[in-house]
Specification:
A hairpin with a 2-residue loop joins strand 5 and strand 6 (about 205). The chain has 14 helices and 6 strands. The model is unreliable at about 1-15, about 120-135 and about 250-258 (pLDDT under 50). The termini are far apart. The chain has helices spanning about 5-10, 15-20, 20-30, 35-50, 70-75, 85-90, 100-105, 110, 115-120, 125-130, 140-195, 210-220, 235-245, 250-255; strands spanning about 20, 55-60, 65-70, 100, 200, 205.
């Protein structure tokens, strides 16, 4: 017997039969009634209040899969009030979220609508007609088992790759964010110096040359290793870049003075 998930993955042609997008569901009920789409959502919420039908998404790797999110919660806000259609459409891409037709067919509120493509769909009957030829042959089952194990290994390898890529991206984002914060602090320190010490001020702007000279003097006073002095001679240029890059975060008066 082939499962719903396996069928949708192995034969995408069945996907339109097994699943319906939330957008198409709302459109279908709207076209079969005198209600507007807001009223369709209210109707669905009333019929789903005690139902645990889950919303699904589709990926090329594993086909259709639930996202552990009840359809009732999908249609309602934090106070369990139904969204307006425009709110729901703004919050989600409704064409990329799906519901299993066989589960919809079990909901009384759906059955009452007498929409053939929904209420007459019974997955149990479909399953009984999809017995794979050779299921009783040990050699065929062995081959299927081997293929399934190969698939699992490939998926596990893909998971490892995706995790590595995610960690790398997360690390890069962290480093970029940290660097940006450091540069903001440098820019603000330059402004602070220029406001409180006249020699670090050139007209209305921070005096980069004076700040750079003071940094080099301090480095010599601290006997910093030569290997760690690289870049200090261009400190003025670096601080100037920080001020230029982050002046948009400062108030208007400061921006015009930098």
């Amino acid at each position: 017997m082939i499962s719903l998930a396996e069928l949708s993955q192995k034969n995408p042609l069945f996907n339109n039969d097994l699943y319906i997008s939330i957008n198409n569901l709302i459109e279908l009920i709207f076209n079969h009634s005198n209600s507007n789409k807001d009223e369709v959502i209210v109707y669905l919420v009333q019929g789903l209040s005690k139902d645990s039908i889950l919303v699904h998404q589709y990926t090329r790797t594993i086909g259709y899969h639930d996202i552990n999110h009840r359809f009732f919660s999908f249609l309602t806000d934090e106070d369990h009030e139904p969204y307006k259609f425009f709110e729901l459409e703004k919050k989600f891409d409704l064409n990329n979220y799906y519901l299993p037709r066989d589960e919809l067919a079990k909901i009384e509120y759906i059955t009452k609508l007498s929409i053939k493509s929904l209420s007459d769909f019974y997955h149990n009957d479909l399953q009984n007609s999809l017995i794979i030829e050779g299921d009783d042959d040990p050699e065929i089952l062995k081959e299927k088992l081997s293929n399934a194990e190969d698939t699992i290994l490939k998926l596990e390898a893909e998971i490892v790759t995706l995790k590595d890529e995610y960690r790398k991206l997360e690390s890069e984002n962290y480093n970029n964010n940290t660097r940006n914060q450091d540069h903001k602090i440098i820019a603000m320190m330059a402004i602070l110096l220029s406001r409180h010490t006249p020699k670090f001020k050139n007209g209305e702007k921070p005096n980069m040359n004076a700040i750079e000279l003071e940094i080099i003097t301090l480095a010599n006073h601290l006997n910093i290793d030569k290997d760690h002095l690289h870049g200090l001679k261009s400190a003025g240029k670096r601080i100037s870049n920080c001020l230029e890059n982050f002046s948009k975060y400062f108030n208007t008066g400061t921006k015009t003075k930098i």
